[in-house]
Batch of 3 targets.
Target 1
Amino acid sequence: MVEGFTARARRMLERFTPRARRAVVLATEEARSRGHESIEPEHLLMGILRDGEGMAVKVLERLQVPETLRAEVERLLSEAPGSSTPSEPGFSPELKAVLQAALEARLQPNHVIGTENLLLGLLACEGSEANRVLHAAGVNVDAARSVISLFYNSMAAPITAENLRFIATSKWRVQR
């Protein structure tokens, strides 16, 4: 799943959950299919959204991010110029900063990096279009961290009626 990446990138991706790795692979496919020379934070956000199953998506759903987020990211990617000569896209400096921020967003140094950490990395690195789009949709680092904490706590929380309601509405999309 990580073929085509440099040895350094493969070592970094080994610290990722399978879902987070998939988001990076989908981001790479987005950049490649559009003829973009580098993989940008916007590609990563689209990879997370295309996967649709990671904790980052659940956080966005819990924050009631509008459905227009995907359309806005699609618009951004469509407007970015493609290259006339096909080449293998590499990670942009902005994406490297996002991945570094994701690495630093782990709860403990030995934890793997999940899609929630990728989302926090996107939110931490201001200046990218992905960051701007997320903020415009009402997502900020504090809100995302709060929801992530709720998810983590619900995994270890005692079974109560309130916890079951939270888990059912947040994780399994059951309506109240």
Note: The domain at 7-140 is CATH 1.10.1780.10 (Double Clp-N motif).
Target 2
Amino acid sequence: MSLFAALFGRRRAPQVADVGAFAAFLAAQGAFVAQKTVMDYCGVKLGVNWQKAQEEPVFAELLADCRWRVYFAAQGDVAAMAESWLRPFAPGREAALAEALAGLAAEAIGSAGAPPRLAAEAEAARAGMAARLAQRQLAAPRPANTLALDAGPVLLETLPIHPDLRKGERVSILGGLRMHIVAAQQEMERRFAPAPLAAALTERAP
């Protein structure tokens, strides 16, 4: 096989509509978006002091809490991204789609293993997921590059870097979050077949 064929001649993997695979995908993307956004920013910001900072108990706890709180919101954002993408393929069953996706997001948060000190916040995120997605359905579907992200304000509020040390960086901080959400949508579109997936999801709801 030539190098060109090896690089460009491989067939694209077939798209799937398996709900279990999609649930695992949403859970993994929610965690990745939160972790990558927080850790990348803090690592770049602290530079050579990054490793030492993580060994400081106070900073380590603040960092962990930030990651978890951003995750609770980001998991909802990933579910909202999926809802916007799949809604056109579920005419007349939009509410059922939102209910199914809210359930998957709530299950992801429930199985993520949040620390006891954040158990109430984790439960609140789970309990509010259905209402969040129902609220999203009051507006037209939006792609990931313009989707409103609930994780943004949480990220800015909880980053363990003093606000005085990140003046002028709001756009870049939120841009990192947006970049990972957009990448998640691109991967979702590559891996999953929207019409049969929407049908399979809506069949799960009453």
Note: Residues 18-204 form one domain.
Target 3
Amino acid sequence: MLVKFSGLLLLSALSGFVTAEETANIEIIAFNCFTCHGEEGRSQGATPSLQGLPGKYVQQAMNDYKADLRPGTIMPRIAKAYNATEIQALADYFAQLKQPQ
């Protein structure tokens, strides 16, 4: 599924739109984040919320965790499981979620 996801992301970037299948795949990957960061990235506790953060910030944080440049308890291990395409997709996903007003 991840190979298919990467291909869909590339096609989406080239075509300028996101398919329903790609959105579903991104949501499946993002679901892993919800355990700590809350449903749709809206934390109810001490863990930071991801919802609505700028994509570049999320992408940089994930890359820093992955490279052991940013300290964390679990995030350095989690970030290493994602490739660059998946990190970009997660960053874009959380950036497009609107924060409640």
Note: The chain is about 60% helix and 0% strand.
